[in-house]
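A protein record pairs a chain with a discrete description of its three-dimensional fold. The following entry can be read in just this way:
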Amino acid sequence: MNDPINNPIKKTINNPDKSPMHKAQAQLWQSLVNQGVVDNSTAPAIQLSSPWYIIGAQILGGWIAALFVLAFVIACIASVNDMEQSILAMGSIITLSCLTYYRVGENNQEFILQMVFAFSISGQLMMLWGIHDTLKHIDDGLIALMYAVLFAVHWWLIPHKANQFIAAIAMVPCLLAILVIYQLSQLILPLLIVSLMLVWSQLYRWPQSYQRLRMLGYAISLNLLFTHFALSDIGRWMDLPQILMTFDARFSHYLAVAMVLLSALWLINQVFNQLSTQPIELTNTAQLSRVKFIAILSAILISLLSIPMAGISTALLMLLLGYFYNEFKLLALAIGALVSFIGLYYYSLHINLFDKSLWLMASGVVLLLIRLTMALSIGKTIANKEQRHDVQ
């Protein structure tokens, strides 16, 4: 494949006259030059991407190659007497090598990237093992801090998206574990909500860190949902580790609900501020204020419902964030979480099925009434605009 004579892709690139795609690109670029839209008379080179099955084979091959090399390295370490120190040293060497490649390496082939990714994950695991064995007799808080620093360095320095996400989703529990160790677990839910709002609200203000903040935002979202899941009755039935059950504090839960409500009100205000400044159908200030009032009232009612149903208001806050910042994956995650939390609460109720069905019917009627009220308000707004247009 490296021979340009036998490579049909390179033949096409080296002979643009034989490629219809190159001809169309040249004609389009020439028309842009004639119109004065662009200054450069030479069209940019076409970046050809490999088919998905080629990329999949490269990913699989990279991980297999990395695992074979790592198996050989671990087998060599197993013969050393001071195994803990050897694992820490080897993990540090592998991690630093991967960091160096990510920062200065120029080969972007998927096979190489996946192989380095596998080495990076393995090096981090070796370092975690070595740090734990070295500091296990000193302080658990120090171990959690070292873990958090290790993942923070990888999250900040590595440009690889998957590696950033794994580092971020592991860094957040390490920071939360520090609060649990020092008996500050009541701050976990409020801090997660504050962090969620801060990260997503700063997403577009730091374009050079957009990918890092986005991965951190998803990591915080998943950890926040998992925390609410641990607080639910299903979480208690599953006999989760005791460290997770330390989240269960009424004060922390009420404070989290209040902070979610304040965050949702801020987002609603931001959305309606944008609507009021754009030339769209909602130009009537009175009607817009009415719709805004209904949205605020709905947020308050949902927050009250989230007191017995942990996680409902948080899922709706994530739904608002996904809509406001145009994050489809966050929207899908929030919808899945909302359905899951409602289902968990429904099946955890210690009442018969008839009473459950009555509660479901009542909830459906309330939601339909809210939807009908909003639709009538918007309809009146559009009708008033049409009347003013006809008068003019």
